[in-house]
Structure formats: C-alpha cells, structure tokens
Amino acid sequence: MSSGMSRRSFAKVAAGASLGVVAGGCSRTEPPASQTQANQPGSRLSPAREFPTGFYWGTATSAYQIEGAWNEDGKGESIWDRFAHTPGKIKNNDTGDVANDHYHRYKDDVALMKGFGANAYRFSISWPRIFPEGTGTPNTRGLDFYSRLVDELLKAGIAPFPTLYHWDLPQALQDKGGWQSRDTAKAFGDYAGYVAERLSDRVRHFFTINEFRSFVDMGHHGKEVLVPGGTMTIALAPGLRLTAAELNRVRHHAVLAHGMAVQAIRAKGKAGTNVGPAEVMECSVPLIEAPEHIQAAQTATREANAPFLTVMLEGKYTDAYLKNAGADAPKFTDEDLNIIGSPLDFVGINVYRPISYVLASDQGGGWHEIPFAKAHPTMANSWLTVSPEVMYWAPKLVQSLWGAKEIHITENGCASDDVVTPEGKVYDTDRIMFLRACLTQLQRATAEGVPVKGYFHWSTMDNFEWINGFGDRFGLVRVDFKTQERSPKMSASLFRECAALNGVA
Ligand code: BG6
Question: Measured on CA atoms in the order 172, 147, 272, 53, is the torsion positive or negative?
C-alpha cells in the first residue's frame, strides 16, 4: 500500500441517504420488496452470491445518446450536435437529432426500467438544454424536462442519479475556447449549482462529469487504445488535435470544473446532497493474484489515473506525472488543487476492461505491463477485452488507494451483435455471460467489504453510440430506430432476476 494515499477522507453520507430516502418524506426509492424477501432463509440464492442490503440496481444512459429533440424547447447547440452534423464524422452519418426520442417517450422508458426491476437510473442532463449559451439566462423549459423525469422515476420507485456532464458542451462555449479556457470550468460550476438548487429537493446523488479521460483525451487529441494484437485510435467531439501542453491544460480544467461543481452543489443543494465523479478508471489488474503483483497493480493504477481520479482524490498531481510531463505540465495553484480535491461523498467508476495486466518488476515504477495476448477474447467491440476480474480489482483499488467509503459502478456492459428471432426475441447469450461474470467479480468485492453501493448497467437501451452511430447496441432493451419500438432482450431478464434476488442469478 502506498503511503499517504488514503489521507483524503470522504464526507459522511447522511443517515438514510444510502437507501435513497427522499427529503420531504413524500417519495421513497428503497430497494424493491422482492429484494429483501429474496435474502430471507429459504431463498434460492446462495448467500455467497448476495449483494449487501440496499444495493442499487440501475442502468445508465446519457442525454445526447437518447434524448433527440436536439433543438426543441429552447435547447442550444452542443458540440455533439455540431460534430454529428459534420459529414464523415459518424458512421453512416448518423446523428442524435432524434436518437431514442426519449425526450418525448421518457414515461414509457421509465416504465420499461420498472419492468426489469431497476431501483436506480443514471441519466445525464444536457447543459445546453439548461443554458443554451453555456452561461447567462437559464432555459426553464429545459430544466422542466428533467424535473418531470425525476418525478416519473420517483413515482416508479427508481432513484434518480443524474450526471451533469456527459460530453455535450454548449457549442457557444466551444466557440470561446471550450475546455481550453479556464472560464469553462467556472461556467460548469455555475450550471451545476443552478441544477442542484432546483432538483436536490428530490435528487440525492449527483455525478459531476462522465469519463474525464474519454472526452478530454479522445476529444482533444485522439487516443490510442490497447486491443489484442495492437492498438486502435478513437477520436470524439470536438475532434481537436492539441499539443501535449494544451492537452494537459484541458485535463486540468476538467478536474477543476469537477471541483467547482462539487463546491457549487454543496453551496446550493439541499443538506445531504451527495456528489462524486463518474470516471472511466484506468485499472491495471494483477495477472497473478500474489502480493507483489497486487502491489504493482496498485502503483500502476495510481499513476495511470494521475491527471484525473488520482488528483481528484488526493488533491495533488503525482510526482511522476509532473516529471514525465516536464515543460508540458499544467500550470496550477495550491488553490486549484484544493478545489480539485474537494471532499466527495462517493466515487463513481465506469468499468469495462483493464488497461492492462501487470506483474511486479524491479524496473521503472515497479510494474511491468503485459500486453493482451493476440487471442485474448473480446466482446463484439475489439477494445472490450473480456477480463471480468477488473470488476473486482477496480473498486478494490479505489478502496485501498484512496479509502473511499462509497463506490458506485456507474457503467459496465458490452455491445452485442444482437439477432432478432422471427418471434421478435433477442437471446443475447454473450451479454448474459459478460454481465454474470462481471457481477460475480463485483460480488466478490462486496463480500470482502469493498463499499460498492450500486451497479449501473450500460445501457438501459440501445442508443446513439457516438462515432459508431446506431451500429453498436449496448442496451438491455432493443430499440428499432425506425419505429422506436422497444423490446427487452434476454439480458433484461437476467438483470431483473439479479435485482429481485439482490445477487448474482
Ligand atoms: C462509455 C461512455 O465510454 O462507454 C458511454 O460513457 C458509451 O457514453 C459507452 O456509450 C460505450 O462506448 P462506445 O465507445 O463503444 O460507444
């Protein structure tokens, strides 16, 4: 265990908050009754497969990927509207203009979630719906949509977990420099405070930003991702190719924005409002579970997350990160670091795959990265190496490195080459295998006392998968994008079983 890494203490969660008890006492979002019954003696679930009582079983989506209504009710343009409207950027030139038409069909979608037993839902709020210009006069019709959605969720017994930024920056801010400008961080804090002030009477948990690393690195430089047999490059909106120094500056502004949002939510939200990030954690997994390799994985993970999770949870950049960046390192003040390291209520991590396996080494930082073997299995996406043990190690390392008291798996899932039978069924055996394997590893973590309080499957339903357009289907529910018909896949049945039993079915 590295010294000094667990110094950051997490703010205590108010009593009752972990069950999602809503302030004001009118609506409660506790686990379904069946969940608690399933834990009684005589349950057909072995105790060795159970999750802790009160566990959140949720699914996740994001605004641009499902809402559509891209220019309705006063919404401003986002960088994803602009990017998708630029020919050649997205597979088949698909756009999120209509997407799942969730903006108009949200009631049906909440009913679907209730149908597959979810007791929590992670969605994102579109910043340009609330502030069409990024700052200035808010658009109350935009806020009203999320207010109605929250009410509908609570009515269905589903706890709302909104994310304030899932990559759809107002284009007006991009035109002023976007994340290269420090002003964007300040604008994000103001927007977060505005939303918290208006929704925290019913919303108990807010995520600040989704996947810092993805939108920063892939959006401002393009990022090489290790896949079996080599690498692949992914580029997202706004599609820039910045220098290393500029990129580090954008990274700094992103974590600063997170810290400003945490402080604004604390200042403007109701007492007991919980806040944390939702980062795609770069997790190194020990290839062999022996103490020296576990130590190596921990050290490697801390360094791999230096510009994002590590600085947010430790309030400082690691020496190695600053040394490696040299003259390209971000310029910052102590005050910046205090803001970035603002105490959190929980840590959200998106966990799909490890960045690599590692073994201990006498060289370098103490670890040796082992590339994925060429024949290492992947899911339908070549980047998604099948390594379910990451679902054990990611939360485990968040606990051991930073002493987190509450962790949420904010995303996990896979695309599948879904085939519809003549009867209209999707038997997605690959997704079922993936989900069960991941939950098995997650349960292993909770059984050891790792404080994971919720699991959010990506995704609720097939949606607009960024540069892959409507090509990649990640949903538990199939969507026919011509008719907008929704039909739950077999994996939704597995999810329902797990949620009802509060364990791995
Ligand atoms: C995460 C994102 O990176 O993974 C989601 O937070 C995304 O928005 C999901 O849809 C799947 O990734 P991709 O790159 O295959 O679309």
Answer: negative
